[in-house]
Structures are given as C-alpha cells and as structure tokens.
C-alpha cells in the first residue's frame, strides 16, 4: 500500500469513476486501474462495486476512505509545518473577480510572493458564476469571488465587504432613474440582477440598464454623460477628484458586495488555505488603511 495508491483511491471514490479520476490526476486510465487493483490486492479485499454507471464504495471501501482522508490531511500538515515556505515551489491557480483586481489584488500577490518566493501563480479574471464553476471543476485552486460557495467540499473565508455608491456626471442635476440609463456590472453578475430587480420594482419596466464587463469603462461612460452608474466607491475616487463625476443619493442603494476567498477543503490543499488567509490580511489592510 502506497501513498499514490491511496490518493488515486480517493479520487476514484470522490468522482465515481476511473475515467474522471484519470483526467483529474492527469494520468492514464490504465494507470489508475492498476493502482486500484494493486491496492485491493495488498489489502486482500474489494474496495469498489463496479457497474456501467461507474463505481461505488464497498463497506470496506468506506472504512478505507475515512482512513485515507486522515492520512492525506496529515501529509498536508507535514508539508505545511516542515517544508520551509521559501522552498515551496508549487503552482497556485487563482481566480479573481474584477472588482478585486482593481482593489487589493496587487497587495495580495506581493504578500504571497514574500511568503512563498518560489511558487508559480496563474491568474484568471472572470465573473463569479464562472469562477465558482472552475473551482468546483478543480481548474483553479483558490477563488476570490462574491461568495460564499455553498458546497460541502469548499471552505470559505469571509473578506471585507465592498460598498457600492451612485455616481453621475459632474455638475448635473439629480437624475430621474425612470428615464436615465444606469451603467453597472456585467449582465451575468449578482449586482446586475439585484439592481435590475430594484429598478423594476421602484420605477417600472421603462428603466434602462447598460451592463459592462469593465468597471473602469463603466465609470468613463458615466463621466462622458451617457448615464449614471452604480459601482464600488473606491473605484471612482480619481474621477471624483478630477471633477468629472460626483456621488449622488437617490434614496436607496444595493447592499455591500460580500466576497470570500474560497478553496477546496476536500481534498485540502494547505497552500490554497494559507493563500486564502494571506488574501484576508491583504484585503483587511487595504480596506481599512
């Protein structure tokens, strides 16, 4: 019985099949089947019931799964506590919502590299719905998104919230939101959905929303007089200081955006978990500094 065999056994049990486990582990299906067969032979028992729909654990398999998870948790703990941070050279795939890119992502990456100077980082920027899917499909290791992700396999660390504010072109009268276009987040985002519902409930279906995938582009649209906008207050400070846009209060606004640093807790990856903690510290310093 080897550690590779136990890892392979866990992937097969979690994903319910040899093919999906092979894809996740980036090895061949015969290699996965060989490891499972060798493990069953070494233990002298059958671990899976096999059918055309896939595989399910036997009673002995369920017992081994519990032991295997404990063993791998110990292995991750050993890596975290024994391997010096400066020697960690793993790849960390991070998915980030655009709001965070323009706030504290640079500070987070700087702190991450200071702690782990040899790690390799890949950054993906997308909307929360896509990042959630990528996290569950294990194509990213850590997602900074509008959370939490409600899956039992995912751990979420709550991050400081981001306040939204209304902006209009400078030196303009208070707009009538029944007829003035509202520029805001991407159509596939939670703020867009919540804003659309509020506008319809308050002003009817005559309201116009101009969604954009770029917050900075949206603020420039407001500054050019196309309409008003609902965006994070931090983003607009430079345009306010330049006298191009200004805040206004229509008497209501959306709730603050709530973000989480989310990562897979099953199987747990200590690098992802510690990176999430660094993200919390970086976000807190930025938002309160």
From TrEMBL:
Any one GO MF term held by the record is: DNA-binding transcription factor activity
Per UniProt, which keywords does this protein have? DNA-binding, Transcription, Transcription regulation
Q: Which domain of life is it from?
A: Bacteria
Q: Which residues form a coiled coil?
A: none
Task: Show where the HTH lysR-type domain sits.
Answer: 1-58
Q: Is DNA-binding a UniProt keyword of this protein?
A: yes
Name one matching Pfam family: LysR_substrate
Q: Does the keyword Lipid biosynthesis apply?
A: no
Q: Which family does it belong to?
A: Belongs to the LysR transcriptional regulatory family.
Q: What is this protein called?
A: LysR family transcriptional regulator
């Amino acid at each position: 019985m080897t550690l590779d065999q136990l890892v392979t056994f866990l992937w097969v049990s979690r994903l319910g099949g040899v093919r999906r486990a092979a894809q996740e582990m980036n090895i061949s299906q015969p290699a996965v089947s060989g490891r499972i067969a060798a493990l069953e032979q070494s233990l002298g028992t059958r671990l899976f019931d096999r059918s055309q729909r896939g595989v399910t654990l036997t009673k002995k398999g369920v017992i081994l799964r519990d032991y295997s998870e404990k063993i791998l948790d110990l292995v991750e703990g050993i890596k975290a506590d024994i391997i010096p941070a400066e020697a960690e050279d793993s790849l960390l795939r991070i998915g980030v919502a655009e709001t965070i890119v323009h706030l504290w992502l640079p500070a987070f990456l700087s702190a991450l590299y200071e702690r782990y100077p040899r790690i390799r980082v890949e950054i993906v920027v997308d909307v929360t719905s896509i990042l959630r899917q990528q996290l569950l499909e294990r194509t990213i290791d850590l997602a900074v998104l509008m959370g939490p992700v409600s899956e039992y396999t995912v751990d979420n660390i709550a991050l400081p919230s981001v306040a939204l504010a209304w902006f209009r072109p400078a030196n303009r009268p208070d707009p009538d939101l029944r007829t003035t276009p509202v520029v805001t987040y991407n159509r596939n985002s939670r703020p867009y959905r919540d804003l659309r519902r509020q506008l319809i409930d308050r002003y009817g279906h005559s309201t116009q929303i101009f969604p954009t995938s770029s917050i900075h582009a949206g603020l420039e649209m407001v500054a050019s007089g196309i309409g008003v906008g609902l965006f994070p207050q931090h983003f607009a400070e430079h345009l306010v200081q330049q006298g191009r846009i200004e805040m206004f209060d229509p008497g209501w606004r959306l709730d603050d955006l709530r973000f989480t640093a989310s990562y897979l807790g099953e199987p747990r990856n200590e690098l992802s978990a510690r990176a999430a903690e660094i993200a919390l510290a970086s976000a807190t310093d930025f938002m309160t500094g």
